[in-house]
Amino acid sequence: MSARVGVPLYSRAPSRAVVAMAVVVFGCAMAYLGAMQSWTLATVLCFGVVITVLAFYKMEWAILGLVVMSNFDGFLKPLFAERFSLFLKDYFIFLAAVRWLWGLFSGESRPSVRTLIAAPALIFAGYVIAQVANPNSQSLTLSLAGVRAWLLWVPVFFIAYDYLESRRQIERLWQVAMLVGVVVAAYGIVQYFIGFNHLFRLSREFAYYAKMAYTAGAGERVLRVFSTMVHPGAFGSAMGFMTLVASGLAFSARSHGWRIASLLCIPVLAMALFLSGARAAMLGTGLGLVVFIAFSRRPALLIVAGVLLLGGFWQSWRLTRGGLEDRVESLSWEYVSERASHPFEMGLEVAAQHPFGVGVSYGSGVARSEAGRRAPGDRTQTLFIENDFGRALAELGVGAVLYGVLLVAAAAACCMAQLRLRTPANATLAAALLGGAVSIAVTLAVGAALYVAPGGLYFWLAVASVMRLPDIEKAAVAAADESPPAMAKSA
User: Fold this and answer.
1) pTM for the complete prediction?
2) Contacts by residues 340-346 (CB-CB < 8 Å, ≥ 24 positions apart)
């Protein structure tokens, strides 16, 4: 346990020169926007400048800015068809990383590098980066894009673990994420009623979402909403995760007001989950709920959370006129096993031919987007394997084992950390976050859940939060024991 728990990471704030520099950048941005006359771009850039200034005084702001930006990733990409929109969230990760390094060189403690996850993460990152030299790679640019797709969110664990130094900070992080989530959920519900035409008028890039629907009953088309995210699957996964987190906050927040607010958020988030039509997210949320109840060791949670979840399901069932029921019923064992096993077998076949993988220039994310921008005569290829373990086998070969080791290390570290907690509120919040991480991990069977925003971000933030709580609890107990009796009585 670091002796520096409780000491703000922003104790060595930068000089006023940073603020002056930010003001200059802000002024230049405003001048550019005045010429471009883009209010949406103005809002995004203003948000970025404000978060940049605040982040150098308190690293927490960089993470909170990243939470907000990752939730609107799918809305901003089509709105700004320019390539820079692909890297908006990257800026906030870079900002947080710079602030993390600033503190490191200033002598601040970095206990994250001594955790169970540090070595597997470093080895996995090294192997992925080495894939740039894979002779099967299509180009350096595509390989670098593939490296980004695999490693984008991993640094978030180290940054979050080191800045989360109190229960108050952890609670505030997830309260902000819940509020952002419920806004996104509300817009998703509105989207179900009004459709996507208003988006088509904003940009022709939104035309991709016109096909987002499923057929139910007597051939009726049921809309699948995506809100502000890149896909209904990503939206459903985020809403399922936040449903579990809101359930945890409802029984662990220090403020009664926040507990009530969290309870009110649960049915809204659950309703958005079901309206997304994301079956993997529904299944993942169900398994995450089981983990939450089991680790929280509070059976009463099952009743309250179950009732609120059913309320969201009932409202969604009414809106879809029973279409949701058909969607859920399609989750048979045969369908689930086939849906997960077939792409995994595709990955095995590729790995059998290429033991060290074909390289990371063929896979998900920016690599595929960049491939689509190449000249029509260019024979750029992509591997469309909708199973992250199958994708790892194809792209990384034997290195897929390292990916599995990293995930197992994260699961083991979280389980051990949660079981060490003695305070009911801490144990409940950690159990909810652990259940949320499980809900996202389940969706790896059908896609790159740890790349798509905000799923990858939430996964590593949850892992960092759960692993940090035992040290925070231990420090709080030690501080209480060392307090003079008079002070303890007045407290």
Assistant:
1) 0.88
2) 340/387, 340/445, 340/446, 343/385, 343/386, 343/387, 343/390, 343/391, 343/446, 344/387, 344/389, 344/390, 344/393, 345/390, 346/385, 346/387, 346/390, 346/394
